[in-house]
Amino acid sequence: MAFTDIHLYFNDVQVDQEWESQGRTVTEADIVNFAGVSGDFNPIHVDHEFCKSTPFRKPIAHGMLVFSMATGLCLHCPPMRTMAFLGIKEWKFFEPVFVGDTIRVRVKLLEKEERSRGKRGVVTWHRAVVNQHKKVVQEGVTITLVEGRSRRAMEAGDRGEETMATTRGAIVGD
């Protein structure tokens, strides 16, 4: 997939901006497929009879499955020209996620650091995964590398006002 006109450059977003993703309902197929891909067949995720003896009483989604889903939901929240996922500064798991739960991600831009004379920049994000009851189930800080408009392009007047206008409706609080 190539970047399109809706994908934002490093220069198009500001510290303290916030977004919320669309929702995604967790299915049993998601859990079974993730167990197969990851090799994590812990009975807490895949054995309904075993789970009856746990505090949860039913299977729970893998924490890393929920994290992975959140990463996917953030692809358009906001739609950035992301070049690389650089790291996880911290991440915490608060609540279980069950089959049938719908998650979404609340995103806030915490820090920006320009690199390579504006050709790219490092963005630090706070991300909170919330369920259908608006309870935070996971949250933490992630870091990405995002394509920037070079200073030369900025000086030439290519500041992206049109791009910002097309995504403004997705910004929480606008």
Descriptive labels:
174 residues; alpha+beta; Thiol Ester Dehydrase, Chain A; 6-stranded antiparallel sheet; 6 strands; disordered C terminus
Question: Describe it for me?
Answer:
With 174 residues, the chain is α+β, with helices and mostly antiparallel strands. It has a single domain (10-170), classed as Roll (Thiol Ester Dehydrase, Chain A). The chain is 24% helix and 31% strand. It contains 6 helices and 6 strands; from the N terminus they run ββααααββββαα. The protein has helices at 28-38, 43-46, 48-51, 63-73, 151-155, 161-167, and strands at 18-20, 24-25, 82-93, 102-115, 120-130, 136-147. Strands 1, 2, 3, 4, 5 and 6 form a 6-stranded antiparallel β-sheet that branches. β5 and β6 form a beta hairpin. The chain is elongated, with a radius of gyration of 19 Å. The relative contact order is 0.24.
Concise synopsis of the structure shown:
The chain is of the alpha+beta class.
The radius of gyration is 19 Å
Which class of secondary structure composition applies to the elements? Answer: alpha+beta
Query: Which of globular, elongated, flat, extended, rod-shaped describes the shape?
Result: elongated
Judging by the overall fold, what is the CATH architecture? Roll
CATH class: Alpha Beta
The percent of residues in helical segments reads: 10-25%
Could you give the count of β-strands?
6
According to CATH, the homologous superfamily is Hotdog Thioesterase
Mean pLDDT across residues: 90
Task: Give the percentage of residues in beta strands.
Answer: 25-35%
**Amino- and carboxy-terminal Cα gap:** 29 Å
Strand count, sense and closure of the main sheet? 6 strands, antiparallel
Number of domains: 1
